[in-house]
Specification:
globular, single chain, two-stranded antiparallel sheet, 2 helices, 111 residues, mainly beta, 6-stranded antiparallel β-sheet
Length: 111
């Protein structure tokens, strides 16, 4: 497991070492999220969402993309390599529908 996560970090080091934006205050009773942003790279951001609860969370999350440098649309690539393109609302955010299993971590690359 350690090898897997170290390899994951090394693969996306340029985005993890860039600025991070907390999307939700982590208090253990709802989802918690970080948006890593680096407008200078191919992948402008990485969204990481954690569900610390023992319940499935199904929501539409407003994700602010202002600091990614994206203007009109954003392509989200999930951990299963599924691509989805979103039009930015007011040039700064998208609404992302998510379903998070209990105790899970989900992530998306943004370009």
């Amino acid at each position: 497991m350690v090898k897997r996560w170290v390899a994951f970090y090394k693969k996306y080091r340029s985005i993890f070492d860039a600025d991070a934006i907390h999307l939700m205050r982590p208090y253990g009773r709802n989802w918690d999220g970080l948006l890593h942003v680096n407008p200078q790279r191919r992948f402008k951001g990485m969204l990481v969402i954690h569900n610390p609860t023992n319940q499935t969370i199904k929501k539409k999350l407003n994700i602010p993309l202002y600091y990614t440098g994206l203007k009109e649309q954003a392509e989200f690539i999930d951990w299963h390599s599924k691509h989805k393109v979103f039009k930015l609302q007011n040039y700064e955010k998208v609404t992302l529908p998510v379903e998070l299993e209990p105790g899970s971590v989900s992530w998306w690359l943004i370009k």
